[in-house]
Protein: Winged helix-turn-helix transcriptional regulator
Organism: Phytoactinopolyspora alkaliphila
Amino acid sequence: MPAFNPDDAGPGYLYVRVADHITARIDVGELRPGARIPGERDLAAEYGVSLGTIRKTARVLRARGLVITLRHKGTYIRHPDARNATTHDSGTGGRGHFEPFPS
């Protein structure tokens, strides 16, 4: 997987480009189902972007059904079988139910 370069200007928003890069990392198995992804500060440093950009990136990844965020716990890669499942609020602040592995 090629490294992300925030200076590679292209059309579109930076947070979407970061989300696309993380999506590609998930697709190739670099980030595996059930794994916790680095925290916001660590991701911001890794990608060379602001915390606000990473927060928007996380929203995109949640909307794509690729990750689930548990308040005070972190953000986790969802299992492919759980990505199409309907999410519901179970104390996750409206971010969905954590099911990284199929039951």
Observations:
- Residues 86-103 have pLDDT under 50 and may be disordered.
- Residues 61 and 67 are 6 Å apart (CA to CA).
